[in-house]
Amino acid sequence: MNQHRSDLHALAAAYALDALDPAERDDFAAHLPHCEDCRRDVAEFEATAARLAGATAQEPPPALKQRTMAGIDGVRQLPPQVPTTGATRSLTHTLRRKAGPLALAACLAAAVSFAGLAAWQYQESQHARHQAQQAEQRLDTVSTVLAAPDARTTHGRATNGALTTVVSSDRQNKAVITATGLPAPAQGTTYQLWLDQDGTMQPAGFLHSDGTVALDGDPADATAVGLTLEPTGGSPRPTTTPLLLLPLPA
Q1: Domain boundaries, the chain
Q2: C-beta of residue 161 within 8 angstroms of C-beta of residue 171
Q3: Strand segments (E) across 158-234
Q4: Residue 204: partners with Cβ closer than 8 Å, 6 or more residues away
Q5: Integer CA distances (angstroms), 195 to 164, 180, 224, in order
Q6: pLDDT of 30-44, one tens digit each?
Q7: CA 14 – CA 175 distance, rounded (Å)
Q8: 113, 107 contact by CB (below 8 A)
Q9: pLDDT tens digit string along 155-199?
Q10: Residue 146's closest CA among 54, 12, 244?
Q11: Contact predicate 166/177, CB 8 Å
């Protein structure tokens, strides 16, 4: 398949995600050594894909180890089994008979404790599963935009030094932004994203650290993507000078 030069530039994201058919991949691979912009795009998309793959990993709850170690000290080992005869057998029988009610009470108390622990573990498991599902949905959205045939890419640098890349797709009606070298925000503040629509800045989500996120809202009528530093929780309108106002490709 022959590709025009302008068409080849649009294949960088799909090439990084190994989403091209063999003919397109061969054409783009031949083009890549001669195009610095495409080499940079491919490197950024590959790094983004690696970060997104790690986003779905789930670590065990921090309290799990503490709970296990505490349980070791509180669980009594079984006594050794030794043969019993005569008076020893009689004494053992008496002790077992008297210990019966106490053992039952202990079992009931343990059952209540384990029931509470099981309920907590179930809630933690459900929460972790929900987080994993959300991460997978974000990954699917970002991957779909990056691999879209009509994906368009633009690069910029925020005033705080962060490097940014915005990829938008009219077909998917979505845009994603990648940030690298984003300084940690001051305490009580957060990075908020915006879509400039007819001169009005519409909230479009948040950037909490380096990585890639899909912008909230419809980028079809937007002319630029903005980034500001806002109070934690965000603002309905920008309250500070934009750190970035990156025009979207037409």
Answers
A1: 5-55, 152-247
A2: no
A3: 163-169, 174-180, 189-197, 200-207, 211-214, 222-231
A4: 193, 194, 195, 215, 216, 217, 225
A5: 15, 20, 6
A6: 888 888 888 888 887
A7: 15
A8: no
A9: 999 999 999 999 888 888 899 998 999 999 999 999 999 999 888
A10: 12
A11: yes
Region at 198 (left for phi over 0; alpha for psi -120 to 50; beta for the rest): left
Q: Which helix (H) or strand (E) holds 244?
A: strand 244-247
Which tokens go with 219? 């980028």
Q: What is the mean pLDDT of the chain?
A: 75
CATH for 152-247? 2.60.40
Does the global pTM surpass 0.85? no
Q: CA-CA distance, 56 to 43, in Å (whole number)?
A: 21
pLDDT digits (tens, 9 = 90+) for 66-120: 666 666 566 565 666 655 555 555 555 554 555 555 555 555 555 555 555 455 5
Tell me which architecture the domain covering 5-55 has in CATH.
Answer: Orthogonal Bundle (1.10)
In 3D space, the residue among 132, 133, 175 whose CA is nearest the CA of residue 152 turns out to be 175
Q: Please, which pLDDT band fits residue 1 given cuts at 50, 70 and 90?
A: very low
CA-to-CA separations, 232 to 22, 111, 191, 211, in angstroms, rounded: 47, 43, 9, 19
